[in-house]
Recover the amino acids of this structure.
């Protein structure tokens, strides 16, 4: 989430520069809710209720997250909404970004929380959280009715007036989007019938907001972060089949941001990362519901550019929340404030959409990279999440407090940890795609097919699919053969090895008539490899299969404000300077198999012989309280001696 004071400064600078910055904007071309001709070729996830996590690390983390969600009180979450609507409330308000004085209040309380409990209810049948969501929706409905014009927020509409007047204000539409998205999630995922009309009322209000505002003035207003307004309105249009919401969605499009991407130009330097990824999700959804290929090209180019030129090894991007360098030039950017967690959440959301268009395994490889390295591991044992993901050596993980922070990353974090089941299996027609290796069960009731995925991955280098069906069933099952595996990857059906396996980085399609009890065993050998920091070949990280390995640099700070931040701040106070990167003497052509020893492949424990020290290595997601290093300084032995 962009810092208020910094954003205000940018805004002031823009105003000072005058409106001449904005070229004449032609009216957006008309798009409508036509089913695109290629829609039937797309993949889609199974409904969340069809996939259940089985015991394993993902299920364990989901349950910790559910415990945190359940610790929050609906009356306290509703407090500032009720006060804003003129309904009495004696509940104790939450603090941090939910404090009654914070200009983002309501983003979590009436937004992310709703999305998270809806996801938890759909993926694990959590009735307790569903009831909390229903109570919250009912409280929000009362607030909206009391206000009377469709508007719903935890702050008065004055904040939007400040947007119109060009006065400093944090991000009113950003918060508005979270609430609309939470309501839609409650409607779509849990069937709450009250939630949809509330969201429609909010959509109507946001369309009315722009009436009488010129295109140039609107573009000026859109310079203030507005989250996924575009996406949620497209989603609402698709759900209700009402074209007017699509028209409102298009009011939240910025040619200044989208045009260069449509022309395959990376002009991202200087932009705030998490302000802009949701715009690409909106573009992706616009393509999906209208068939407009320009919007598809924008989303695809953006994703490809970030993946190849702006990502760190953990599968996330940004420094101080921004893209600060030219593409491919991340040298000198390792610090505490790398890789805001929300950005990974949004990039992964975009990856699963883009994957659905052409089943390109690259996007599921990228999804896995982020999932294992910068989502898993960012929640502590009490369900509290990280904001930044420090990548300089010697730092540690810091988390928000239970009731005094409520960052944006708290919000996307509680959603992420409630939806680990959403990308494991996809379908296209009657075909099944196995994308992620997570212990789980797919129960495709309409087809009478159940697939148990039995795996200890990544402790096990592969997975097993066991089919249950009441009758023989002809079907193609596509299994991802990840880009990180080796030519020794192997697939067996009922113990018999297939002669050919797809190349790493693609899907293996297995078509046959499946019988009850058929078993597909997939062996995916992992190996060590090294990846340089973009723009600096002398700085590299080590991976084992999809896992980024981190060096354990010893205990982190004791329990206290360096580990849990009891305020709305996102960085602990009094941070020390980082350590130098641990140094490896390894010339050109010397791979990590020369300086990293595998202690135990199943336990995922390694050792690295660095200059002057030996380091214990483990997957980054297993680093909890330790200080760590992800990147290494690689020096030619001659230079280093
Ligand atoms: Zn965030």
């Amino acid at each position: 989430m962009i810092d208020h004071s910094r954003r205000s400064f940018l805004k002031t600078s823009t105003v000072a520069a005058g409106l001449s910055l904005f070229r004449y904007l032609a009216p957006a071309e008309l798009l409508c809710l036509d089913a695109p001709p290629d829609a039937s070729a797309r993949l889609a996830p199974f409904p969340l209720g069809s996939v259940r996590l089985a015991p394993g690390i993902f299920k364990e983390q989901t349950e910790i997250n559910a415990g945190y969600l359940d610790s929050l009180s609906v009356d306290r979450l509703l407090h500032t909404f009720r006060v804003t609507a003129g309904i009495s409330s004696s509940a104790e308000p939450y603090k941090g970004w939910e404090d009654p004085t914070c200009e983002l209040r309501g983003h979590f309380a009436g937004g992310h929380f709703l999305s998270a409990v809806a996801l938890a209810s759909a993926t694990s049948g959590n009735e307790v959280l569903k009831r909390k969501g229903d109570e919250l929706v009912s409280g929000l409905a009362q607030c909206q009715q009391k206000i009377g014009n469709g508007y719903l927020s935890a702050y008065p509409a004055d904040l939007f007036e400040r947007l119109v007047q060009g006065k400093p204000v944090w991000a009113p539409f950003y918060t508005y989007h979270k609430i609309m998205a939470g309501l839609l999630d409650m409607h779509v995922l849990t069937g709450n019938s009250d939630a949809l009309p509330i969201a429609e009322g909010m959509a109507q209000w946001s369309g009315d907001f722009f009436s009488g505002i010129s295109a140039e003035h609107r573009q000026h207003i859109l310079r203030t972060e507005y989250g996924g307004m575009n996406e949620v309105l497209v989603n609402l249009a698709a759900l209700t089949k009402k074209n007017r919401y699509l028209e409102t969605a298009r009011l939240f499009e910025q040619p200044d941001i989208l045009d260069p991407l449509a022309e395959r130009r990376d002009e991202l330097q200087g932009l705030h990362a998490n302000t802009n990824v949701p715009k690409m999700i909106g573009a992706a959804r616009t393509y999906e519901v209208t068939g407009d290929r320009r919007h598809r090209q924008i989303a695809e180019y953006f994703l490809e550019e970030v993946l190849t030129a702006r990502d760190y090894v953990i599968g996330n991007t940004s420094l101080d929340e921004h893209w600060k360098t030219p593409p491919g030039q991340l040298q000198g950017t390792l610090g505490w404030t790398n890789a805001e967690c929300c950005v990974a959440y949004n990039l992964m959301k975009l990856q699963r959409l883009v994957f659905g268009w052409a089943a390109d395994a690259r996007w599921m490889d990228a999804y896995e990279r982020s999932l294992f390295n910068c989502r898993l591991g960012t929640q502590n044992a009490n369900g509290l999440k990280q904001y930044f993901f420090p990548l300089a050596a010697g730092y540690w993980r810091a988390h928000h407090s239970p009731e005094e922070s409520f960052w944006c990353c708290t919000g996307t974090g509680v959603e992420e940890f409630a939806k680990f089941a959403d990308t494991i299996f996809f379908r296209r027609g009657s075909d099944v795609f196995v994308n992620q290796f997570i212990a789980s069960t797919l129960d495709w009731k309409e087809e009478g097919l159940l697939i148990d995925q039995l795996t200890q991955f990544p402790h096990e280098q592969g997975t097993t699919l066991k089919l249950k069906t009441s009758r023989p069933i002809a079907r193609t099952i596509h299994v991802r053969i990840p880009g990180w595996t080796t030519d020794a990857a192997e697939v067996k059906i009922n113990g018999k090895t297939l002669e050919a396996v797809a190349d790493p980085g693609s899907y293996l399609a297995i078509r046959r008539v499946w019988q009850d009890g058929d078993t597909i065993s997939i062996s995916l050998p992992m190996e060590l490899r090294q990846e340089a920091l973009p723009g600096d070949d002398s700085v590299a990280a080590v991976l084992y299969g999809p896992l980024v390995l981190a060096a354990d640099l010893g205990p982190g700070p004791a329990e206290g404000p360096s580990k849990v931040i009891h305020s709305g701040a996102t960085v602990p106070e009094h941070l020390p300077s980082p350590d130098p990167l641990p140094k490896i003497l390894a010339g050109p052509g010397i791979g990590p198999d020369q300086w990293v020893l595998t202690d135990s492949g199943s336990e995922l424990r390694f050792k690295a012989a660095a200059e002057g020290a030996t380091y214990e290595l483990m997957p980054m997601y297993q680093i909890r309280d330790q200080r760590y290093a992800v990147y290494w300084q690689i020096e030619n032995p001659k230079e280093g001696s």
